[in-house]
Design a protein that fits this description.
Length: 205
């Protein structure tokens, strides 16, 4: 009887495994389908259909492609980031000598610029979806101007905690959900400062 019970229990376990595997496979497939969207970011019904996890994974792929090597030196010109392809081009660089402009970025997270420590000027403007600035977490010096304007989803500047100096003007305005500029506390040197339309109507400085 002991052997029969063992065989019966094993057969039951195998039966359960056979049932579970198709279900798990179906869930995986369903997850992939739910996250799919066309090149314009719209689903088949025309509505915006960008899955947050899919966007984060795609952006992190850009970061992963660069690896941990920050060995590409200085980008000797201005650089415009408007999508993941252009973001990929800048991976591994430690400095942008000219203006780094991030405008109209199509996803919520900005991974792939973790090597970047210095820029000539920085402009983050008119980014509807961008909310996570951790891709700029290593940035310590902006030699000239810093502009953060018209970013509808940025809620915090905490990822910019490594920034210690802005050589020119600092202008933060019309960021709909940004309550205050906390996160720039380490900035010890800065030119003219302008804060407008902060949600909490306070500078925190």
């Amino acid at each position: 009887m002991g052997s029969l019970e063992t065989f019966s229990g094993t057969r039951t376990l195998l039966h359960v495994i056979v049932l579970v595997l198709p279900v798990a496979a179906g869930c995986s497939s369903a997850t992939r389908v739910a996250g799919e969207h066309d090149a314009t970011g719209e689903g088949s019904d025309g509505d915006l259909d960008v899955d947050a996890d899919t966007a984060i994974d795609s952006a992190r792929d850009v970061e992963g492609d660069a690896g941990d090597a920050c060995d590409r030196g200085v980008w000797e010109d201005n650089f415009d980031v408007d999508g993941l392809d252009t973001l990929h081009e800048l991976s591994g660089f430690m400095e942008v000598a000219g203006t780094l402009m991030i405008m109209g970025f199509p996803t919520g997270v900005l991974y792939g610029l973790e090597c970047l420590q210095r820029v000539g000027s920085l402009s983050l403007s008119d980014n509807v979806w961008l909310w996570d600035l951790h891709g700029l977490s290593s940035l310590s010096l902006i030699r000239q101007d810093f502009e953060l304007m018209g970013n509808e989803a940025v809620v915090s500047l905490e990822p910019l905690g490594s920034l210690t100096a802005v050589g020119g003007s600092l202008h933060i305005g019309s960021n709909n959900v940004l309550e205050n500029p906390r996160g720039l506390d380490a900035v010890e040197s800065v030119g003219p400062v302008s804060y407008t339309h902060l949600r909490a109507h306070e500078t925190g400085r």
